[in-house]
Design goal:
The chain has 332 residues and is α/β, with parallel strands linked by helices. It contains 11 helices and 12 strands. The chain has one domain: Aldolase class I (TIM Barrel). The chain binds ligand PBG. Ligand PBG binds next to helix 6.
Length: 332
C-alpha cells in the first residue's frame, strides 16, 4: 500500500480525529465478544467455585458449576469457551491415563455443557501436562520428552474429547506430527466436523507462571519445556511450524503468548491468511490485574486496548481471561 497525501496544510491528519463520530467512521479494527475464547478451569468435587490465587477474578469450578459459565458465555455472545482441567498432585500419574478417560472432569464438563447450551462452541486443551506427575506436556523417559508415544496418547485424548462433544480440539503440547495424527483419527472415527486449532507457535515463556498455579502444575513441573516449546528469540521458525500444522490439517492456528509476540501474529496472518488466534496468557492477565489493583493503570481501558492490539496485529480472535469482563463492557 502506498498512501498518497497532499502536503500540509491540504492534508491535516488531525481532521479525521476531531470527534468521536468521525473517529468511529474511520476506525480500522473492531472488537466484539464473538472474537473471544474464554479459558475456563474445571476441577473435581461438587459445588466448588474457588479463586485462583495468582489470577484475581479467575475461578476453578467443579463440573456442576460449569453450566453456569456456559450460559453466561452464551448470553454475553462470547465466541467459545476453552476447558482446562485442574488436577491436584494426588490425581497425577506417570502414564497420564486420566487424559483419555471418558469420565475425566473435562469430558464430563463438555457433556454437561452440550446438554444445557448446545449452541455454545466448546474448545479443549490437548496436552499431558495437567495429568502428568512431572508437569510435562509429553511422557518423560530418562529425563527426555518422548515424542511419538506422546502423540499416540494425544490422539486418544482428542478422540475422547470429540466423543464427549467438543467442537474444537486445541493441541497445546508442541509435539511433532500430532496434528496429522489427530486429524487422521478424527476422520477415521467419523468426526469430520471437529475442528483443530493448533497451538502452532507456542513459546517457552515465563508468562505462563500463573496458569501453572491454576492447573496445579507449579509444584509438579520438573525442569523446563525448552526442548518442545519455541525459543523466544525465533520468528522464522514460527512460520515453519504454522506451515507444517496447516499442511497436516489444522483449521486454525494460534500464537502464544500474545502481546509480547504480536510481530509473530502479523507475520503468520500475512503469510498464510488462515484463521489466526492469539492467547493472551495468564501472566499477561495477572500483570494488568496487579497494576490496576495498585492504582497504577486503569484496568478497563488497558484491558480493551490490549485486546484491540490483537485485532490490529491481524488476529481473528483472542483467548483471554478478560473475555467476560470485556464482553460486558462491549455491551454497555
Ligand atoms: C500447557 C499449557 C500451558 C498453557 C496452556 N496450556 C502452560 C505451559 O505450556 O506450561 C498456558 C496458558 C496461560 O498461561 O494462560 N499445555
Amino acid at each position: 500500500m502506498q498512501p498518497i497525501q497532499a502536503p500540509y496544510p491540504a492534508t491535516r491528519l488531525r481532521r479525521l480525529r476531531q470527534n468521536a463520530g468521525i473517529r468511529g467512521l474511520v476506525r480500522e479494527n473492531h472488537l466484539s465478544a464473538a472474537d473471544f475464547i474464554w479459558p475456563v478451569f474445571v476441577r473435581d468435587g461438587e459445588g466448588i467455585v474457588e479463586e485462583i490465587p495468582a489470577m484475581p477474578g479467575v475461578m476453578r469450578r467443579s463440573v456442576d458449576k460449569i453450566v453456569d459459565v456456559a450460559i453466561e458465555a452464551r448470553d454475553l455472545g462470547i465466541g467459545a469457551i476453552c476447558l482446562f482441567p485442574y488436577t491436584g498432585l494426588e490425581e497425577r500419574t506417570e502414564d497420564c491415563a486420566g487424559a483419555w478417560d471418558p469420565e475425566n472432569h473435562v469430558n464430563r464438563a463438555i457433556r454437561a455443557i452440550k446438554a444445557a447450551v448446545p449452541e455454545l462452541v466448546v474448545m479443549t486443551d490437548v496436552a499431558l501436562d495437567t495429568y502428568n506427575i512431572n508437569g510435562h506436556d509429553g511422557f518423560v523417559v530418562d529425563g527426555q520428552i518422548i515424542n511419538d508415544r506422546t502423540v499416540d496418547a494425544l490422539v486418544k485424548m482428542s478422540v475422547e474429547q470429540a466423543r464427549a462433544g467438543a467442537d474444537i480440539i486445541g493441541p497445546s503440547d508442541m509435539m511433532d506430527g500430532r496434528i496429522g495424527a489427530i486429524r487422521a483419527a478424527l476422520e477415521a472415527e467419523d468426526f469430520q466436523n471437529v475442528m483443530i486449532l493448533s497451538y502452532a507457535a507456542k513459546y517457552a515463556s515465563a508468562f505462563y507462571g500463573p496458569f501453572r498455579d491454576a492447573v496445579g502444575a507449579s509444584g509438579a513441573l520438573t525442569g523446563d519445556k525448552k526442548t518442545y516449546q519455541m525459543d523466544p528469540a525465533n520468528s522464522d521458525e514460527a512460520l515453519r511450524l504454522v506451515a507444517r500444522d496447516l499442511g497436516e490439517g489444522a483449521d486454525m492456528v494460534m500464537v502464544k503468548p500474545g502481546l509480547p509476540y504480536l510481530d509473530i501474529c502479523r507475520r503468520v496472518k500475512d503469510t498464510f491468511g488462515a484463521p489466526t488466534f492469539a492467547y493472551q496468557v495468564s501472566g499477561e492477565y495477572s500483570m494488568i490485574k496487579a497494576a490496576a489493583a495498585q492504582g497504577m493503570i486503569d484496568e478497563d481501558r488497558v484491558m480493551m486496548e490490549s485486546l484491540m492490539a490483537f485485532k490490529r496485529a491481524g488476529c481473528d480472535g483472542i483467548l483471554t481471561y478478560f473475555a467476560p469482563a470485556a464482553a460486558k463492557l462491549l455491551q454497555s
